[in-house]
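Chapter review: from sequence to fold.
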Amino acid sequence: MAGVFRQYHGDSLYLAAFAASLAFIWWSSRKKGQDGTGKKAVWALVLAVVFVFNEAAYRIVGRLTDATTYYRFFWMLPVLFVIAYVFTQLLVEGKMKQRLLGAVLLAVCLGVGANLFFLNRSNLNRPKNSYGLDPDAVAAAEAVMEDWNGKGQPSVALDMYLEYQVRTYEPRIVWAISRKAYLYQAENGYDGKKYVRQQHIIAAVNEGIKQNAKALKRSLLKNGVDYLVIRTVFDMDSYLSDISVIPVAQSENYTIYKVKAKE
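The token string follows.
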């Protein structure tokens, strides 16, 4: 159970807030003489652990649909709603001290620049930027949009680490590598028969593999890729320059390359 939660929420304090909220519901219901409400809350959590928040349920759901995308909703909804319910109860129905406590907690959450429960136990500092994203993702997205002068939206190939973050920061950027291609490659390696063209791009941006440059260029053109974002340590400049893919900007750890059309 703990592993499944960490996969989607990292080492955050959401679970602690969720447990504290359930404890508050149980305590407040007993104090009001509504012991049944608290018991229902506890039983709901127990049943959720047995039937939902565990590895077996994760695997079953994974066979029916895309678990890495949709399984989070099974736990996200009850966790967030319970926390929101307790905050609302403190502010609306609580006594003055409880309302003050709820208001202070809410103000702290807003003042930190991100929800308080997004803070990591080992790092209580503010995020490096107001979005809480990796600075490389922000720099790459801004560099692409500053350089882009074409019609429509730029198509950018990024490694799996940056892909979601860049799209979160700049929704006008289109993923050049589909999520399904990444998942397929992770399971089948580079010998799979599906997503062959995208596999060439994955090899370059995700691992810095320098193999058939002409095949990579064909894949870039066929997929309509406008930019590549690759870790600078992979040292891809000379390899990519042979196929008219040139560097246009650089972040702390990544180089942004522009794909020139066939001349």
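Two observations follow directly from the output. Residues 4 and 54 are 7 Å apart (CA to CA). The two ends are 55 Å apart (CA to CA).
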